[in-house]
Write a structure and sequence with these properties.
2 copies of one chain form a homodimer. Chain A is an alpha/beta fold. Chain A has 2 domains: 3-62, Orthogonal Bundle (Arc Repressor Mutant, subunit A), CATH 1.10.10.10; 68-248, Rossmann fold. Helices cover 39% and strands 22% of the residues of chain A. Chain A is built from 11 helices and 15 strands. A 7-stranded parallel β-sheet of chain A has the order 6-5-4-9-12-14-15, sandwiched between helices. Chain A has a 3-stranded antiparallel β-sheet with strand order 1-3-2. Chain A has a 3-stranded antiparallel β-sheet with strand order 10-11-13, covered by helices on one side. In chain A, strand 2 (50-52) and strand 3 (55-57) form a beta hairpin. Chain A is elongated. The N and C termini of chain A lie far apart (63 Å). At the A-B interface, helix 8, strand 6 and strand 7 of A face helix 1, helix 4, helix 7, strand 6 and strand 7 of B. Chain B binds a DNA duplex through residues 3, 22, 31-35, 37-38, 53-54, 69.
Chain lengths: 249, 249
DNA sequence: ATGGAAATTGCAAGATATTGCAACTTTAAC
DNA sequence: GTTAAAGTTGCAATATCTTGCAATTTCCAT
């Protein structure tokens, strides 16, 4: 039995049953478990299966579904969140958007801070509700299934009645010339209003979202006051934003 | 059974049901509870679930979980939820309160059901947002930290503008003579309004909450139309409610 | 064909990982 | 507080992995 032939049989087996054991393969193919182990090692390096202690699992079985976006670039988001918190002080009225970066802000909020938060994001609101000293007000409306935020005319109407000191705006895309863009028109409608009613606007963005654009425009770069990324403010990539008048954090 | 395989199965389970118990997993997977504990520990460190006393919660669920102890009495709550769902039909406008039993209703909702839900509960809203065909409208207001629901005058004002077909009301305490009671005045204010504006009211209650009372009255037994418990309608303990005119499910 | 380098294979020993158990500590429910 | 359930820690038994090595096979240039 050739090595390639044996490995092909192993692959067929793992794709059929989702898992294979050293012991079974050793018996079926009449080679030592060491050989099987080495085969699985190679196949694993080629990315054809996932080796685990005692055998191997098919890729499809192993790559189960979990929300990758929530743990994606977690460290960077925490860095951004810590910077954003420095903009907050007692007594402020803060409008905070959805997104995982703002969720992180809500999570690391200093316990003694006394701020009134307005938000349209269900996850953010839930996290804010854990805070001992800050108040949270949820702006009601029809819940958008994707973004988990309230949308629609009711949201716009409610927001027009308040005048927040600061808006913490998470974003998918920011470009030095085109400004803030997004892909979901319902989200854009809400974001536009949030920015219009707020005294100051801070955009929170992981650096790899800079220089990218989406289909729908939210606002120009001139309506943004702060840009918060995980990078140091003197990074060259941030220079265009500084020249556009944004304060970097 | 391979360790990784077992962990993959655990993840599948937790993502499906939102919660898992040591004891159940131990039995299903035929390993000791210690092993399950260690698996959950590892998965938790990898950020794939959240470990809690007695088991684990899915990441998405934990964000809006009330107390960790709420994973108990899960079977009873599912039973109640399944009964409650039978009251729903396409086109209805349904007002749904907070609480873990209603959260369970939201989770097991048949996917093809087309209902418009109004709710004040953040956790319930998040779960409802997962539903493919039903709409969810969140009634905005100041978020009560304990109950994770919106409260205050704005809620009452918004609710007075709608006329729901049915109100699914979770409860802490129900008594055949004193009616519905609760311990948090902000919650009571919202519940009162929900019951007043709704055409029909169904109270969802685990049987051990029957015959108990709290400090503040929500409504009399005569304002309730349905009582849904995990027990069979012919249980003697339910007789007083039947005599009071409630339909038992 | 055939000598010899390279690859493959099986084996063994030491290292590491997994698992269940038991003693002990912590937690939370009453 | 008291108590029962759950969690933690250390440990021993077992299983699996790694590594080096020697025996064997394959391959290819002579």
């Amino acid at each position: 039995m050739l090595k390639k032939e044996r490995q092909a049989l192993i692959l067929r087996e793992v794709n059929l049953h989702n898992k294979v054991l050293h012991a079974d393969l050793s018996r079926q193919l009449q080679v030592s478990e060491d050989t099987i182990r080495r085969d699985l090692q190679e196949l694993s390096e080629e990315g054809k299966l996932v080796k685990v202690r005692g055998g191997a699992l098919s890729k499809s079985f192993h790559v189960y579904s979990y929300k990758e976006s929530e743990i994606y670039k977690y460290a960077e988001k925490t860095t951004i969140a810590r910077k954003a918190v420095t903009l907050l002080s007692d007594g402020m009225l803060v409008l905070i958007s959805g997104g995982t970066t703002n969720l992180e802000v809500a999570r690391i909020l200093p316990p003694e801070l006394q701020v009134t938060f307005y938000t349209c994001s269900l996850p953010t609101a839930l996290q804010l509700a854990e805070h001992p000293n800050s108040d949270t007000i949820f702006v009601g409306g029809r819940i958008s299934k994707n973004a988990k935020i309230s949308t629609g005319g009711q949201v716009v109407t409610t927001l027009r009645d308040i005048r927040p000191d600061l808006c913490l705006m998470g974003t998918n895309s920011l470009d030095a010339s085109l400004g803030l863009t997004d892909s979901d028109w319902e989200v854009v409608e809400v974001k536009k209003t949030m920015i219009q009613v707020s005294d100051q606007v801070a955009v929170l963005s992981i650096s790899d979202k800079l220089q990218s654009t989406q289909k729908i425009r939210v606002c120009g770069i001139d309506e943004v006051d702060y840009l918060i990324t995980e990078l140091s403010p003197d990074e060259p990539i941030l220079a265009p934003y500084h020249q556009a008048g944004l304060k970097l954090l």
